[in-house]
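We treat protein structure as text, and this decision shapes the records that our systems exchange. The remainder of this section carries one protein's record, kept here as part of the documentation:
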Amino acid sequence: MKQLTAEQLNRYQRDGFLVLENFATRAECEALQQRAAELVAEFDPQGVISIFSTREQTRQSDEYFLTSGDKIRFFFEEEAFSADGQLRQAKEHSLNKIGHALHDLDPVFSAFSRKPALADIATDLGYQQPLLLQSMYIFKQPNIGGEVTCHQDATFLFTEPLSVTGCWFALEDATQENGCLWAIPGGHRAGLRKRFVRADNGGTRFELLDESPWPDDLLMPLAVPQGTLILLHGLLPHLSYANRSPKSRHAYTLHLIDGVCAYPAENWLQRSPDLPPRGF
């Protein structure tokens, strides 16, 4: 069943993003929040401290991160720890995200990720063989929610030809105060700037393709209410600023690629042959 109108598709092609309010119900959003809380309650952080940072991404690419493509793993905020390495507050208020295979390994997230309406959107966008490659539950914690610097999703989930689309679901109201997304309308037409790949000697590195600075003056906020889906073209430059407010900004993200495209072995995210990416 067709989900996107011709006008919506034209806007998406023009801007590189499309805002779809009321895609998810309040009950669906609360169910994902509840399930994330249960997963966090079961998580024992002892000996498993992995910090997520977009400013020092190559340095922070530890083995726990690099082998998370087909697992459910937990990543902390940079500011969650004191100088002596201890958590400043409870773990549920310290995590940056859960990734990267919630959509395959958890039944609650799998059911949401495979809603028929989302499969229809993939068809509307022209996918021949849509595959659900990566998912993340993002907490954007009050006061310490870290900045996500300007980036393109295709940097991290590269295919030949390019095919990645980001699906960003607001599980809580996203405002400028609590760290909503910002995007550069039309920026997806400027080409890919860099790739994030596995280094030959271990770890990761960035392969620079275009060192031009982002036109930050063109950034616009995407403040949206709970239940909104924002579609993000794989080449769209977007970011979110740090959350210094007392309110969290929970979101769930899902990334699709087309199975007819080549997925290089040097991409950072790899999955076991026992759990290949699958579709809807």
